[in-house]
Design a protein that fits this description.
Strand order of the largest sheet of chain B: 2-1-3-4
CATH topology of the largest domain in chain B: Rossmann fold
Distance between the termini of chain B: 30 Å
Largest sheet of chain A: 4 strands, mixed
CATH architecture of the largest domain in chain B: 3-Layer(aba) Sandwich
CATH class of the largest domain in chain A: Alpha Beta
Shape of chain A: elongated
Oligomer: heterodimer
Bound molecules: flavin mononucleotide, FE2/S2 (inorganic) cluster
Helix content of chain B: 40-55%
Structural class of chain A: alpha+beta
Number of strands of chain A: 4
Largest interface: A-B, 36 and 38 residues
CATH architecture of the largest domain in chain A: 3-Layer(aba) Sandwich
Strand content of chain B: 5-15%
Largest sheet of chain B: 4 strands, mixed
CATH superfamily of the largest domain in chain A: Glutaredoxin
Number of domains of chain B: 2
Number of helices of chain A: 8
Strand content of chain A: 5-15%
Radius of gyration of chain A: 18 Å
Number of strands of chain B: 8
Order of helices and strands of chain B: HEHHEEEHHHHHEHHEHEHEHH
Strand order of the largest sheet of chain A: 2-1-3-4
């Protein structure tokens, strides 16, 4: 189970997703502290937490929408906006920062043509900044979904990104640049 | 991989018998000249390609017809992550660093088959000349006394048999049969162990506060939110020796009279969550967690709560709010969690490293632990 990997965009209908959400709600609503695990699962199912899902969870847990939204906004791993297939998180913890994390971030921003918190138009990549991943020996570190990539070099960002781009066009683009 | 290969443990004598058996089997291995290759599968080494190195080693061993004679072990973090992927090879534990899959051939053909070390993969010593070949010769390891890290980098963290062969759950067995809750607290007091989460509060005192409160339910929590940048002790422990944390928490639960615990792990540590989950499943399957542990009336289980990215959740009251499903906002203390914690019940919350010390203290005695360290600081600290 992972928070970041999403199954959105695949050939699953909304009804199916909602059915899975109902299961998650049923499983967690009577458990003490069940709201956060339910939100985590919902984010895995939908890739993000759209209004419709938040409304349904609030109803299922017998809480106000404001209360649920308050929990969502508190935690940086929850997002109300759709995310890309690959969530790229650049560590800007102390060790990574001094070893060039900032430059890595700038290079990725330039390559993907998005800012932090945004998603590419083709929904392939989202960009976030991370706090320490505890892999400081190999700084600067980038996490893509649940995998850690070490000593990422700003000069070789095209290759770095190209390894995820299953889309042929993107691969070509990456090689050309 | 989560399959438990060992039988259910229904009593303390079952555990003892199993440990003896596993230890004997290990001895037989070295007598038959079976060597070990320990490949570091810590988070850092994995990110720098340890999996491919392991696969290449396996291939080469098969090619050389050595795969039954050489045991490949995937361990937790060995420490020198910067040099990863790293491995310890053979009986003398030759340390190899910055490994690539291509190096597997030399390691197997030269070191394993002909007994000749591969110098180019060894680390240079301080003056940069002669390589320091073996673990025990290296400055990095020489000065370490491993208590918290007793198994980290030595055993496969997701094989409960490895843990048991190395005295895992023996402290719990000892506490369940001879010592009882008061005896556990007493040894913790003698040990002088203080919390490793930052504030350095005496662990035994926190436990005795929670124990003294009248309550129908008490909880034990483990703080694995490890928010300080540059710190990854807790991550290495969870990934490298998850059973040590489980056993430490079980001992705390026994001491204070709790049946349920939670480990709060930050969202940035998926591998730690994965390994801890496997370890929990194994412990349950073997009867080391759950109802009537080792045939006694002690019942205890553990659940993982994943964080969702908020630094402040490392603070104890915020962490508790987060487990309760709320915004992880700290609240003023008192009341302290030991009095009024999770869902208003007396709660003991300790750091990962704190728990990792407990089983060693209970097994070898508080006195033994208190004598480690320097004149002024009679304690053990895991430093990076
Ligand atoms: C802002 C803040 C962040 C903290 N972060 C952590 C942390 O990441 N890990 C931790 O074990 N303790 C952290 N603490 C300390 C905990 O509140 C608590 O004292 C500790 O986990 C208790 O365990 P111990 O007695 O074993 O040290 C933090 C405290 C504060 C105020
Ligand atoms: S992860 Fe291999 S030495 Fe730390």
């Amino acid at each position: 189970m992972s928070i970041s990997s999403c199954t959105c965009g695949q050939d699953v209908t909304e009804t199916e997703l909602m059915t899975r959400l109902e299961e998650v709600i049923k499983e967690n609503k009577d458990k003490a502290g069940g709201l956060i695990p339910a939100l985590q699962m919902a984010q895995i199912i939908f890739g993000y937490l759209p209004d419709m899902v938040v409304d349904r969870i609030a109803e299922g847990f017998n809480k106000t929408i404001t209360e649920v939204a308050g929990v969502i906004s508190f935690y940086s791993f929850f997002t109300r906006n759709p995310r890309g297939k690959y969530l790229v998180r650049v560590c800007l913890g102390t060790a990574c920062y001094v070893r060039g994390g900032k430059e890595v971030l700038e290079a990725i921003k330039k390559r993907l043509e998005i800012d932090v918190g945004e998603t590419t138009e083709d929904r392939q990549f989202s960009l976030e900044v991370g706090r320490c991943f505890g892999a400081c020996g190999m700084a600067p570190v980038v996490m893509v979904n649940d995998e850690t990539y070490q000593r990422v070099k700003p000069a070789r960002i095209n290759e770095f990104i190209a390894q995820f781009a299953t889309d042929e066009e993107l691969v070509l683009e990456g090689e050309e640049k | 991989m989560s399959m438990c290969t060992i039988p259910k443990i229904c009593s303390v004598s079952d555990l003892t018998a199993l440990r003896e058996k596993l230890k004997k089997e290990n001895k037989k291995i070295s007598k038959d000249d079976t060597q070990q290759i320990l490949v570091c599968f810590g988070g850092s080494c994995l990110a720098s390609g340890a999996k491919d190195v392991r696969d290449a080693l396996q291939d080469e061993l098969e090619k050389a017809g050595m795969s039954d004679k050489v045991q490949l072990v995937e361990t937790g973090c060995m420490g020198p992550c910067v040099a990863g992927p790293v491995a310890l090879v053979g009986e003398d534990r030759t340390f190899y660093q910055s490994l690539k899959p291509e190096d597997a051939k030399d390691i197997v053909n030269s070191h394993i088959c002909s007994g000749k070390r591969v110098e180019r993969l060894m680390i240079a010593d301080e003056d940069g000349k002669i390589p320091a070949p073996c673990r025990q010769d290296m400055q990095f390891f020489k000065r370490q006394t491993q208590v918290v890290l007793r198994n980290c980098g030595w055993i496969d963290p997701i094989q409960i048999a490895d843990t048991i062969a190395n005295d895992g759950y023996a402290a719990l067995a000892k506490a369940l049969t001879g010592m009882g809750p008061d005896g556990v607290v007493e040894q913790m007091k003698i040990s002088g162990l203080r919390g490793r989460g930052g504030a350095g509060f005496p662990t035994w005192l926190k436990w005795s506060f929670a124990k003294a409160r009248e309550a129908d339910t008490r909880y034990v929590l483990c703080n694995a939110d490890e928010g300080d940048p540059g710190a990854y002790m807790d991550r290495s422990l969870l990934e490298g020796d998850p059973h040590a944390i489980i056993e430490g928490m079980a001992l705390a639960a026994l001491a204070i009279g709790s049946n349920q615990g939670y480990v709060y792990v930050r969202a940035e540590y998926p591998l730690a969550v994965e390994r801890l989950n496997i370890a929990l499943d194994q412990a349950r399957e073997c009867g080391l967690l759950g109802d009537n542990i080792m045939g006694t009336d002690f019942c205890f289980d553990l659940e993982i709560k994943k964080g969702s990215g908020a630094f402040v959740c490392g603070e104890e009251t915020a962490l508790i709010a987060s487990i309760e499903g709320k915004r992880g906002e700290p609240r003023p203390r008192p009341p302290f969690p030991a009095v009024k914690g999770l869902w208003g019940k007396p709660t003991v919350l300790n750091n990962v490293e704190t728990y990792a010390n407990v089983a060693a203290i209970i097994l070898k005695g508080g006195e033994w632990y208190a004598n480690i360290g320097t004149e002024k600081v009679r304690e053990q600290k895991y430093l990076l």
